[in-house]
Known about the structure:
By secondary structure, the chain is of the alpha+beta class. It has 2 domains: about 1-55 and about 260-394, no CATH class; about 60-255, no CATH class. The chain is about 55% helix and about 15% strand. It is built from 14 helices and 11 strands. Strands 1, 2, 3, 4, 5, 6, 7, 8, 9, 10 and 11 form an 11-stranded mixed β-sheet that branches. α12 (about 310-350) packs antiparallel against α13 (about 360-385). The longest helix has about 45 residues, at about 255-295. The two termini are about 30 Å apart.
Amino acid sequence: MSAFRDLLGVAWTGLTARKVRTLLIMLGPIVGVAAMVGAVGLTESAKGDLKAKLAVLGTNLIIAQAGGTFGSQNPTFPDDAVHRAEAVSTVTSAAATAELASVVALPSQGGSDYYQAFPVPVRAADLTLPSVLEVPVINGRWLTESDIKLHTRSIVLGAGLAKQYAFLPGETRTIKLNDTDYGVVGVLGSVALDPDLDNAVFITQWAAEHDFATDGKPNKLYVRSVTGRTQETADAIPTAINLGGPDQVSTKVPSDVLQASAQADKTLQQTALFAGLLALSVGGLGIANVMSISVIQRSSEIGIRRAVGHSRSKIASQFLLESLFVGILGGLAGAALGVGIVYLVSSVAHWVVVVAYSRIPIWMTLALIVSVGAGLYPSIKAARLEPLETLRLG
């Protein structure tokens, strides 16, 4: 046991005596393990954030859009499109919006040129839209039945538009739609499943019909289905709305786009894992190369130890232990670096931090195997040196 302890001390001293060289040897395992920990951690953290969003937003929202022969330039649904959609047995709720053409929303008189060039979408919306979207009104209130009965010109801003307009909570603000003033009564929260709504303004169907002479027909439906039957419902909605006629209805499940993004993250994770393995392999070659040079540089040390009676196996074990230390230290440093990267990036991106701690020992073991494997040749080379030969090399 004492001999083994002495051997460990000699191997450790061999590494610490040449700190820069040791650090360079360790770069391979450090980069390799850090890349693998970071790759899996970041993609899982992004996926964890996605799962958290989907848990709140749900995966059962369907968006139906009018198209084709429902209208020529601006296709619309029939007046009773919501009732037709709700007639599908797997539909739990539905709400409609109608985008108004040729209506310019102006937050101030001075910005008229800009907002005429880049118009803000104005939508006539059902009173049930927030509940169907499952999105809260973050300031004020949503449009109500009283707005329709009392003919009040109330308007609700999307979350993104409220920031653009610099709207403050509780502020009395008037927005001009063409030449008509509307009072802001609330701000709808961010709609992750349809970001277009974040930059829109919403008014009642009554206001759209009376102030802008629209026919009140919607061109987009938001439908909630029974959980687990979303695609089945999406397939049934076009027939329910057009009653089997030639009018076109397109449907999409926006959560599918987010899930496809998660699958793309999986591909990125596999690519980064491969890059980490490649870094480990290149690092192994670096270990073998640097340690081979180290054998030549330390030939005098090897010769003295051989002269005082150290066996070939002890010399080989010394260098093998050095490569073992490199693998252990490099793996630990790489794991710490990878975890740090995951926490840093996740905090900046506001993701849920997910670190695959259970896989870290596997990647550290890989680093250890590569380091020890790379140290075999230098160890054998050192063990074969004869005392007289070391005088020529030294």
